[in-house]
Write a structure and sequence with these properties.
By secondary structure, the protein is an alpha/beta fold. 23% of the residues lie in helices and 31% in strands. Helix 8 (231-240) packs across helix 9 (251-259). Composed of two chains; the small (or glutamine) chain promotes the hydrolysis of glutamine to ammonia, which is used by the large (or ammonia) chain to synthesize carbamoyl phosphate. Tetramer of heterodimers (alpha,beta)4.
Amino acid sequence: MAYEQTTARLVLEDGQVFEGQSFGANGESFGEIVFNTGMTGYQEVLTDPSYYGQIVTMTYPLIGNYGVNVDDVESRGPNVRGFVVREFSEIPSHFRSMDSISGYLKKNGILGIAGVDTRMITKSIRSEGTMKAVLTTENTPVEELLARLSEPFARDQIDHVTTQSTYRSPGGDRRIVAMDFGMKSGVVRSLLARHCDVIVVPARTTAEEVLSWQPHGVMLSNGPGDPEDAPYAIETVKKLMGKVPIFGICLGHQLIALASGARTEKLRFGHRGVNHPVKDLKTGRIAITSQNHGYVVAPESLEGTDLVLSHVNQNDGTVEGLVHRHLPVFCVQYHPEARPGPDDSDYLFDDFMKMVDDYRAGRWVSYAEAE
Ligand SMILES: NC(=O)CC[C@H](N)C(=O)O
């Protein structure tokens, strides 16, 4: 097949330069480089707003073989700063496919590089930690790119991905306010599937405004960046705790921890993939989970707070879930809405519904009381 070949370069902060084939848009794009180990789900990865500002490397060697479609999106369009693959498929094959991965990236102005050693890139990230990187189809000298990589990146990611205005998806009689820090559509879909009337509000909505909807529950969404860069959200969560049942996912989980006096820290290279084993300490069951995070709650910082560890990562022992001792608040670091990934943790949305219904009916029992 005739294919216009353009060279692209990926330059890492540590000075490594990878030359490959451009298969996306032309230009120059800076971001934090991370890797995702999912064998499928590349379109959900591209459109997950938590990747805003990041260049994503896929460890699976062939990407794009089932094309792209209008259903597998987690937001309006791709949020990544760049996409790095070993090989991309030029001839997608799937009954739902409407475009190729390269066509999709080009249409959305996203840079892509193929034909590079993604194993080596991943090993570098694993040993040196998450790094800054630049993807370019231009002739900018490496020294100039490295000089720009030594400058700090903006830290206001949430403001770029949150909804600009409040919107409502009617679906039932449980009124849930979802705080959108860069929410995946899967979260709203999971609530709508459970007869919720979902009111999605911008990240900087105050606690008073949230409560003015008289919600039966509040959902704190996933989102990009360091949770400590959103002090306004920590403040809001602090004020909401105890007023209404709360369920937090990923960034939402981290905000609950920070609002409760615990600490978050950066993982060396993060968890991004669809097969992370997590143990539910209450049932002893292990779920295979979908994950995408670079920060984590520091376990020792839970001491002296009212939060109890509820879920633990079986690969590295990190904190994966928390429950409040006295208030209707719980959260997980991973993605029960999956998309991509297994539905093992879907039950957490049912738990949230139970909490909402019990609280509303005046029969909710706290963790401490149940013990
Ligand atoms: N998916 C998320 O919500 C990620 C949370 C946060 N941005 C992190 O990287 O840890």
